[in-house]
Structure formats: C-alpha cells, structure tokens
C-alpha cells in the first residue's frame, strides 16, 4: 500500500507539499499540483482518514448511540441516519449500548478519542453531565426523543402525549368501555409521556383505576407478562393500549394463548409503526411515528451544526398518525 512519502518521492516534491494538495491548504502552483495528483493516481494512493482527522480534528464521521439495535424501531432509525449521512459524505459508526450506562460512557470516550465530528443519541442513559462535557469539548450532538433534564439540547422527537391520546380515543370509538395500558420504563421521557397521555384520556371515567396500568418494559416478553397480570386483576378489560409495538406484539400473543379473541373480546393498539405489526394475524393497529423522517431530520440538523450553521437548542416535534388495522376492526 502506497504512503504519502511514496507519492512525494514519485512527484519529486516534499511530503508537506503533498499534504497541502490533499488538504487544499496553502499555496501550490498548478504544475506541482498536477504532478502530485498524477503520482496519487499512478500509485492508487488513498489518504488515511484517521490520520487526516488527527491533524485537522475532522474525520467526516458521526457516532450513533442506540439503546437496543434488536428493536426494529432503532434499526429503521439507524438506516435513515446512515442514508442521509452518506449523501453529505459522512460515515456513521453505530454504537449499541444495550441500555447500559457504563457501556455508553465507554462509547462516548472512544468516539471523542477518534475525533468523530458529531454524535446522535437515542438513549435511555444519556446524562446531563455527558451533554455538558460534549458541549465543552466542542462536539455537536442531537438527541433523538430522550433528552436529559435541566440541560439545553437539540432534540428531535414525536408527539408522544398526543399519540397516546389518539390511541385511547380510537379504542373508545370502537366501543371499548374499560381500557388498560402497558407502559415502558418511566425513566424515559417517551414512556412517561405516553403513560401521561393515557391517563389524561381516561382518568375522568368512573372505571379508571391506577391498577389498569402495568409495566411491560418496552419488550415482547414484558408485554406478554404485563397482559397476563392485567387480565388477572381486570378480567373485564376490553381494550389495551400498549406503549410500544413490541409490547403490543407480546400482548397479542398472550391474549391468543389465553383464548381471548382479538378484537372480539379485547381490542389492541400499539405505538411506533414498526413493520412487524403487519406480520401478525390480525395485523396490529398502531400509532405510527415517522421513523425514517425522525432520523433524517436529526442527521441533517447535526451536519448543519458541524458545518457551522447556528442552530438553537430547541425541540423539533414530528406528527404521529393512527393506522387502524385488524386488532381494532370490530364490526
């Protein structure tokens, strides 16, 4: 593999001159520039991006830190980030934190040492101190959905509260008279806002009780277990709003195992709009987020910041929409 010294030797110039041509810095006359470019072509020389980054502190690399790449929501989010980044000439490094704060801390330090140009976080464990440290280091960041409290951030998210109320209203409109809620980890703003939206929609009904809310941990297994507990306490429930689609998938599986007809006995709505919701029978009604657009918008905003555009720390909220399918399709 050719080195920058090989290029300099073939072109008959110094290493510093080759560096100026590569980095487009300083003056190099046209004849010399052409010699260097010809030598690069003949030797098939490819500059070392990392070494270049160490010198310029710019590597055209973004870090994307996700909590669980096995969740289809984050897989689609990652695809949109990568697609948009590539159109701007950036490479994305994917970091899967497994909802582990220590693992996330290691990723942050590694990415800083590798001079990534910016970071995107879709994280349950991002701390206020992390945001402050990254700001001090001059590393731009955008938070997807889950920003820490008490620190200004650029946030891109969906209207979680509004979506939850939309889900509950749909269940009411289909004739449900007692609706339970499977909720996610309350340390996340996402799960908390969806739970609050559910409460706001149902707390005025005489049948409402806090015991109608059951933790499902944003997972299929969690949704199964929560549904079983919920029906043991309230066998007369005829509607369930699951705070994400994975819990809805678990709820549907458990209801069918228990011999409960969906939607005949219990109607079901999820939240997110992942593709798996159309692979079940019946297909799952869901409140769909514009997942691809969320990732695309966050990436564009981050790159604008990296390239010097002044963007205020504010929250960009994307609309959600109800997708009615078989689990609420009562005649």
UniProtKB/TrEMBL annotation:
Keyword check for Cytoplasm: no
Annotated GO MF terms: DNA-binding transcription factor activity; transcription cis-regulatory region binding
Transmembrane segments: none
Presence of keyword Methyltransferase: no
Domain HTH lacI-type positions: 2-56
Source superkingdom: Bacteria
Pfam families hit by this protein: LacI (PF00356), Peripla_BP_1 (PF00532)
PROSITE patterns the UniProt entry points to: HTH_LACI_1, HTH_LACI_2
Swiss-Prot/TrEMBL keywords: DNA-binding, Repressor, Transcription, Transcription regulation
Name this polypeptide is given: Catabolite control protein A
Native source species: Paenibacillus ginsengarvi
